[in-house]
Amino acid sequence: MNWRTISRWAAIVGLLNLALMMRSQSPLADSTSRSIARGAPVEYLFPEQVTIAVGKASPVALHFRVASGFHINSHTPKEESLIPTAFSVPESSGVRLASASYPDGEDFILPLDPSTRLSVYTGEFTIQTRLVAEHGNHLVQASLHYQACDKSACYPPRTITVPIDVIGN
Amino acid sequence: MKRNTIVLGITLLLLALFAWAGWANWEYRKQAAEKRLASMEKAELVADSSAGAGDVPHFVSQLTSHPAPDFTLEDLNGKKVSLDSYKGKAVLINFWATWCGPCKIETPWLVELRNQYASKGFEILGLSADDLDLDDKAKLAEEKRDIAKFAQQQHMQYPVLINAGSLDKAYGGLDALPTSYFVDRSGKVVAATLGLTSKDDIEGNIRRALAE
């Protein structure tokens, strides 16, 4: 067996291996149909970092985006059974939520029920908060609780993390 | 010559090792994918290429043509109710929640259709997917009251069962509501829908379950 034969075998085994590796990325890909991604319909946009005065309620505007085709209830839905969108800051995080002012919801009518008007957020929306920080750098894992729907179905209530680096000085 | 033989031997060994690693990797991933597929939800939303964002996706349930997974859940009075006890009847298993707007739209249709087809051996089981604080008696009682209030307001005269979230895996993830499974008299799922469809669609599926 000379080096040329060995190289040939090496190339064959290498290609076979590569083919197996590529196939292994999705061994059952052929048996499943494409599913619609149902990731989080709401995304926190910004700010990632804010600097505010220590011990003083300071305005911080938080920006979010609702994915296209979805809506979430506003902070003041029109029916008691609907879950309002709500922002919160965990206790003992070095930062306190003094107040939160939510935008008004926009009217939304389901095509199959024109008689019912919902109060929802779509696209981008902003919550105007007032935060009080202790001295230092606080990586706050705040939360946004919401419940999303599209035109025909609703998705279970979710809470997303809103990470904000709050510097109190 | 001896050196060449050693190099050749090592090269062949490495090639064999390389080939074996590829094969083992593929086998491992295949088994992992099979396990994942077996345990994951059995239902999928499949995009209709003609549909735009937010349009009703075509619902594909792997439960269709298979026996509906049996379950036993409590009703609002604490009485245990099992799907198995409805064998011989066509059953609509309807997953809903108090926070689900589209569920509220379809419920009056369900009530009407139940009244229309009950005499032919049709029943609806309304399964509330509202979260329950099972470890907190006071909260649980309050949550049950909310579900009962909603069921009463919606005139749900059929059995309303709670804690449907426990059927999450068996019934395909339940990641959107309303979700309905239409079960024939032998206990087999003949149709499934996700999201608000229409009263006509629901009636058509009830008739299929009744084999009309």
What can you tell me about this protein's structure?
The complex is a heterodimer of chains A (169) and B (212). With 169 residues, chain A is mainly β. Chain A has one domain (42-168): Immunoglobulin-like (Sandwich). Chain A is 13% helix and 47% strand. Chain A has one helix at 3-24; strands at residues 42-46, 49-52, 58-66, 71-73, 86-88, 95-101, 106-110, 113-121, 124-133, 136-146, 148-149, 158-168. In chain A, β7 (106-110) and β8 form a beta hairpin. In chain A, 24% of the residues are buried. Mean pLDDT of chain A is 85; it is low at 22-37. By secondary structure, chain B is an alpha/beta fold. Chain B has two domains: 1-39; 43-209, Glutaredoxin. Chain B is built from four helices and nine strands, in the order αβββββαβαβββα. In chain B, α2 (101-117) crosses α4. The radius of gyration of chain B is 25 Å and the shape is elongated. Residues 33-55 of chain B have low confidence and may be disordered. The chains are: A mainly beta (169), B alpha/beta (212).
